[in-house]
Amino acid sequence: MERAYHGTTTVGLKVKDGVILAADKRASQGYYVAHKKVRKLVEIDDHIVMSTAGLVADAQMLASQLRIMARQYRLENGAKVTVKYLASYLGLLLNSSKYSPYQVQLLLGGYDDAPRLYSISLFGDYFEENYTITGSGSPVAVGVLEEGYREDLSIEDAVNLAVEAVRAAIKRDVFTGEAVDVAIITREGIRWESFSKE
């Protein structure tokens, strides 16, 4: 089970105007750097993004399930799926496999009628958060967030704080590295940015 927490750093922040998700780009297998350009932020719908930490195959399969559920919800209800609905569905998927668990810890962020950010644990517990972190760099990144987070941060300041938290992990965590990808989710949709590790 420890493998689910090794190999990455992902950060989520909810502020008054949106949700910021950020992640590094390094994929590791033990102490081996397997890839330097991995995208750990996955678009689920045009207003929801999931960050991934853990085993890639498990995360990819779960992302596919969420995309299908989001499309099905839209077809059946004529409206976009809520972030909480998908967080609950993801929690059920993870909980149903608790005796042979998926090796993941996930963040789900989006904007339905307001900004929403959920942390979903290995066994399907999900909690709405103002800010949260997953992965091996969490012990370093959390200090940066605790020092700088406020609910009234602007989108730009929230992006800077998320990037600073991942960069701190890059400097101190051997499993985190290369660069920082950021998803900015607001009422207008999703915007993507990338930042260097420095």
CATH architecture: 4-Layer Sandwich
Rg computed from alpha carbons, rounded to a whole number of angstroms: 15 Å
The main pleated sheet reads as:
5 strands, antiparallel
Looking at the structure, what is the overall shape? globular
Topology order in helix (H) and strand (E) letters: EEEEEEHHEEEEHHEE
CATH class: Alpha Beta
Q: How many domains, in number, for the residues? A: 1
- The structure class reads alpha+beta
What this model shows, in words?
With 198 residues, this protein is α+β, with helices and mostly antiparallel strands. The protein has one domain (2-187): Glutamine Phosphoribosylpyrophosphate, subunit 1, domain 1, CATH 3.60.20. It is built from four helices and twelve strands, in the order E-E-E-E-E-E-H-H-E-E-E-E-H-H-E-E. The protein has helices at residues 56-77, 83-95, 138-148, 155-172; strands spanning 9-15, 18-24, 27-29, 32-35, 41-45, 48-54, 104-111, 115-120, 126-128, 131-135, 179-186, 189-196. The strands form three sheets. The protein has a five-stranded antiparallel β-sheet with strand order 10-1-2-11-12, with helices on one face. It has a five-stranded antiparallel β-sheet with strand order 5-6-7-8-9, covered by helices on one side. The chain has a two-stranded antiparallel sheet with strand order 3-4. A hairpin with a 2-residue loop joins strand 5 (41-45) and strand 6. Helix 3 (138-148) packs antiparallel against helix 4. The protein is globular and about 45 Å long. Mean pLDDT is 90; it is low at 1-5.
